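Bug #77: duplicate submission created two jobs. Keeping one. Sequence:
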Amino acid sequence: MWSICRKEFNQFFSNLTGYIAIVLFLLVNGLFLFIFEESSILVFGYASLDKFFSLAPWVLLFLVPAISMRSFSDEYKSGTFETLRTKPLTAWQITLGKYLAILFIILLVIVPTFIYVFSIKTLSASGVIDSGGIAGSYLGLFLLSAVFAAISLCCSSFTGNAVLSFLISIAACLTLYVGFNALSKLPAFAGTTDYYLEMLGIDFHYQSISRGVLDTRDLVYFFSLIYLSLLITVKNIQQR
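Kept job's structure:
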């Protein structure tokens, strides 16, 4: 499993793609947080990273599928999947190896944003920020990314076309992120099942954790989605 993880991780950073992904994530967030007047923290006037935690999921919605799209698609296309299956590895070990590699890459993308925390703490008039809320938001952001990664890996296991995998992943992640929330706003569900529909969406649980309060229901939701996505991935590669 760890050999697969190392291979995937090293392969991602074997060219400029990996470094460009990290730079683009930091650049886009930096522009919106400090440069563009409509969303700048400097103009907002409060030592808060709420704007970052509102924007980051949308950037990750495209970045994570881009990181994951070649995981299985390239293996199918190049014919190396057959060689991979001859090795003494179970389907779960192969899947978890690739999944862990994606998680490590996501961590490398998120960790540099800690500089934003020190930035707003320095800019704060009192030098005090809501550390608990920020810690909860970062945990929520990582769990959201982990779900996106599991879904994207699952989509990659369906096709040998990396571009198709990327597009399907974005559609699936977008549907789970805001689809149920949008559905709950329809007049037909108002006052009846709107709350339960909203609970099915990722955004509901992401916002809950971002408030700095760990709720078991949120953790169960995230881990259940991850497990279900990985289970479908395992079934797919076993059938092949």
